[in-house]
């Protein structure tokens, strides 16, 4: 299933430094159609899953049982509501994290599934699909802690090289919840020197609303997660070392080791693989929903740019 | 590591039907030294982990990241306090779930670890070990939903046969948290007919404070979890079918399939396997801490005995 569009290649991002609301408005008016990585720095970005209301409670339970890959940070304030969400972010419960929004249009690209198969990908809005029976659910995104890593002098290689983060399907089972069964963790990967891993764990640990600390690291983790080839990610772009070599080539040498985090593609996979009937929508990976709150709101003590 | 004592063999339990507080008092005065399964029906039973305060915040994070095997339901109201706990049980936050207690004596048997190795097992109290620096952390226990299964006409085989529940170490990694790395899920197993599994999932689903619905089921799950021999559990007693045959003998036949739940031995394993320095204490598995609240307090709508 190719649900991750390869959009970093052409870097035509029109807006360099602005607020989350500016990005949402640009997406709403179709002035923005590119991915959102790096846009509106320090503003939180969220994964988006839109479900018929009958699936919402099982999905909430899926997130509660698997908070590392599926941190549920907000949802529609009521069934059918596309203009307001309730925040569950620790410390920001009930806060206005997304004001003046239209969830049907504020993402630059969406995917529409019908009976668990992709029906449309890359659509600019879901005005035709939305009905009064839908619930929008927002999942934290690891872009947040990347700012903190950069500030600490530990920038992820893919940001330095202006590439997409590599993302892998694993064989680690999710704890099932109601209709959501048979799915597995999806992980994002950023490579670091082995000597840097403890520092990287420490920096990302407080970001509990956006996947927190890594779930595994080192070359042994590749096998344990069931990843066949580190140089062939399921989504995103193959990882390169600082000097531009494929990461897999340096295995066993005194160089980078892979470090894996829970990834917000996990709940999208769970939705796609659970055989749900009817129409379900998500953002197109990389094209996130921008929020009004900032990294420093979710980790007040963290030193973010 | 043999941390599960084989105590059901002699059923010398002195108290058949009473309250959680009665059981705690009996343990405190050493009138009770047997396991607690089946005692004070409907009263919640908890797993107990007692850590030096420096490890408490990482342990909380371990529980938050792995809520299915490690549902943290309460902890010492302050560092060094053995007489009162703060409840985190959904709907009972801050409630008096354990009044008039002495956590150093109210469990019938304890284990003491030093530098991650068992130093003493089966001790009747931990008065000598407790200092002002310890924090007691309580983890939900699946005995709770067993009452609900019995009421629904789906009694676990081990309760009907008066045996210990079989418990297995798996190869499913826990999400690490700070010092707690490198550990895996531990699961309890109750076998059911394949046609009963959906009903069993439904009945146990609401018990989120006590592991909730199963994490895996069916014969394929045995391999996926990395369990080598269903008839050789890591702890507890080998599972038997209704007619007394080893469960593994009926694989592939129209008979029971294994159903696996997250198990409160998981956090004990994590504590034992994380190389913690100093003295750590837990209950001796099967010898749980009894609470004042009841199954019906945590799942109000559930029909429990």
Automatic annotation (TrEMBL), chains A, B:
Q: Which Gene3D superfamilies match?
A: PSTPO5379-like, PSTPO5379-like domain
Q: Which UniProt keywords apply?
A: Lyase
Q: Which Pfam families match?
A: D-Glu_cyclase
- What are the GO BP annotations of this UniProt entry? glutamate metabolic process
Q: Which GO terms describe its molecular function?
A: D-glutamate cyclase activity
Enumerate the PANTHER family for this protein. Answer: D-GLUTAMATE CYCLASE, MITOCHONDRIAL (PTHR32022)
Provide the protein name.
Answer: DUF1445-domain-containing protein
Q: Which organism is it from?
A: Mytilinidion resinicola
Taxonomy of origin reads: Eukaryota, Fungi, Dikarya, Ascomycota, Pezizomycotina
């Amino acid at each position: 299933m190719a649900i991750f569009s390869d959009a970093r290649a052409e870097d035509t991002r029109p807006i360099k430094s602005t607020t989350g609301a500016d990005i949402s408005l640009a997406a709403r008016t179709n002035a923005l159609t590119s991915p959102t990585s790096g846009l509106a720095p320090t503003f939180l970005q969220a994964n988006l899953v839109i479900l018929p209301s009958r699936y919402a409670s099982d999905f909430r339970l899926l997130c509660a049982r698997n908070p590392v890959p599926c941190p549920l940070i907000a949802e529609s304030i009521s069934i059918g509501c596309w203009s307001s969400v309730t925040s569950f972010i620790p410390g920001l419960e009930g806060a206005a994290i997304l004001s003046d929004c239209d969830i049907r249009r504020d993402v630059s690209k969406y995917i529409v599934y019908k009976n668990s198969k992709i029906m449309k990908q890359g659509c600019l809005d879901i005005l035709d699909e939305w009905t009064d029976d839908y619930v929008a659910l927002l999942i934290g995104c690891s872009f947040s802690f990347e700012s903190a890593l950069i500030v600490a002098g530990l920038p992820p290689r893919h940001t330095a090289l202006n590439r997409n983060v590599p993302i892998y399907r694993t064989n680690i089972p999710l704890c099932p919840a109601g209709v959501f069964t048979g799915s597995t963790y999806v992980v994002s990967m950023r490579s670091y020197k082995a000597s840097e891993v403890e520092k990287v764990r420490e920096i990302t640990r407080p970001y509990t609303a956006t996947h927190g600390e890594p779930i595994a690291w080192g070359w042994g983790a590749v096998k344990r997660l069931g990843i066949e080839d580190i140089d062939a990610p399921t989504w995103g772009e193959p990882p390169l070392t600082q000097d531009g070599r494929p990461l897999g080539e340096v295995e066993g040498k005194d160089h980078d080791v892979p470090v894996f985090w829970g990834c917000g593609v996990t709940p999208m996979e769970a939705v796609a693989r659970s055989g749900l009937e009817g129409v379900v929508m998500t953002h197109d990976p990389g094209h996130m929903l921008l929020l009004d709150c900032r990294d420093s709101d979710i980790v007040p003590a963290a030193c973010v740019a």
